[in-house]
Automatic annotation (TrEMBL):
<protein>
    <submittedName>
        <fullName>UDP-3-O-(3-hydroxymyristoyl)glucosamine N-acyltransferase</fullName>
    </submittedName>
</protein>
<dbReference type="GO" id="GO:0009245">
    <property type="term" value="P:lipid A biosynthetic process"/>
</dbReference>
<keyword id="KW-0441">Lipid A biosynthesis</keyword>
<keyword id="KW-0444">Lipid biosynthesis</keyword>
<keyword id="KW-0443">Lipid metabolism</keyword>
<keyword id="KW-0808">Transferase</keyword>
<dbReference type="GO" id="GO:0016410">
    <property type="term" value="F:N-acyltransferase activity"/>
</dbReference>
<dbReference type="GO" id="GO:0016020">
    <property type="term" value="C:membrane"/>
</dbReference>
<keyword id="KW-0012">Acyltransferase</keyword>
<dbReference type="InterPro" id="IPR011004">
    <property type="entry name" value="Trimer_LpxA-like_sf"/>
</dbReference>
<dbReference type="InterPro" id="IPR007691">
    <property type="entry name" value="LpxD"/>
</dbReference>
Length: 93
């Protein structure tokens, strides 16, 4: 599909790249990552397992989730959500 893969990239099993995806050098894609068409992934980026990338990202990005977001931002949002659900009795252990 006219994808361009940079030097020394690591692509783990069951990843899917739509047409015209460009991976920079040293990009790591964990298992079952999906990348939509016409997207560029900057060099030295990491895309965590089962993430869905729907937008281009700059160098040294660390992405996770569906749709893929900055991993640190994703984890902060998840921590706040867990705290809120515990406070309101929604979450039971």
């Amino acid at each position: 599909h006219d994808c361009i893969i940079g030097n020394k990239c690591l692509i783990v099993s069951q990843c899917g790249f739509s047409g015209h995806v460009v991976l920079g050098d040293h990009v790591i894609t964990h298992g079952q990552v999906g990348i939509a068409g016409h997207i560029s992934i900057g060099s030295y980026s990491v895309i965590k397992a089962k993430s869905g990338v729907s937008h281009s990202c700059p160098e040294k990005s660390d992405l996770f989730g569906y749709p893929a977001k900055n991993t640190r931002e994703y984890n902060k949002n998840l921590a706040v959500l867990n705290k809120l659900t515990k406070q309101h009795g929604v979450y039971k252990q």
